[in-house]
Amino acid sequence: MKVLIVFVSSHGTTEKAAHILSDFVEGDVEIVDLNVNRHPDLSQYDAIIIGASIHGGLISRKEKNFIAKNLHILLSKKIALFLCCMNEGEIAIHQFNKAFPEVLRNHAIAGGLFGGELIFSKMNFLQRQIIKKVSGASEDISKLDVDVIKEFANQFNKECLCEV
C-alpha cells in the first residue's frame, strides 16, 4: 500500500509528528510538506493522512486550500486526519472538528489529537509575546504524545488491512 502523509508545519511540531507517524504506518510511506510541494499527485496513493496544526484557532490557509481543491479525490481514498494542538479535551475536539470539513471527518478511517509544542526559538518576537500573554509560558513546552501517535497508526493500519 502506498501512503502519503501530507502536512503544513510552521514551527516543526506537525512535521515531527508526521515523521514519528511514518515509522509506525505500514506500507510505502511518503511525507510531503505543503510548504514545499503544494500540489502532490494524489492519484498515486492508496491512502492519505492529513496532518494539521492550530495557530490562532485555525489551520493554515495552504492546508484549507489543499483540502478544498482535492476534496473529491480525498473522498475516493482511504484517509486519516490528525491535529497537533496544545489544547486538550473538548477544546481540542472542537478545534479538530473546525479544522477538517465534516464530510472528510466522516470519511476518515482514523482521527487523532497528537498534542502540541511551544518552541520559542522558532517563533518570531510577536508570536512569543502573544504566547506569553495567552498561555503564561515563556519557555519551550512539549505535549506531543508518541503513544497517541502509535495508537493512531495501529488503527490506521488495521482499517487499511480490513478494507483490502
Automatic annotation (TrEMBL):
SUPFAM superfamilies: Flavoproteins (SSF52218). Pfam families: Flavodoxin_5 (PF12724). One of its GO terms (biological process) is heme biosynthetic process. Residues 3-149 form the Flavodoxin-like domain. GO terms for molecular function: electron transfer activity; FMN binding; menaquinone-dependent protoporphyrinogen oxidase activity; oxidoreductase activity, acting on NAD(P)H. Gene3D superfamilies: 3.40.50.360. PANTHER family: PROTOPORPHYRINOGEN IX DEHYDROGENASE [MENAQUINONE], PROTOPORPHYRINOGEN IX DEHYDROGENASE [QUINONE]. This is Flavodoxin.
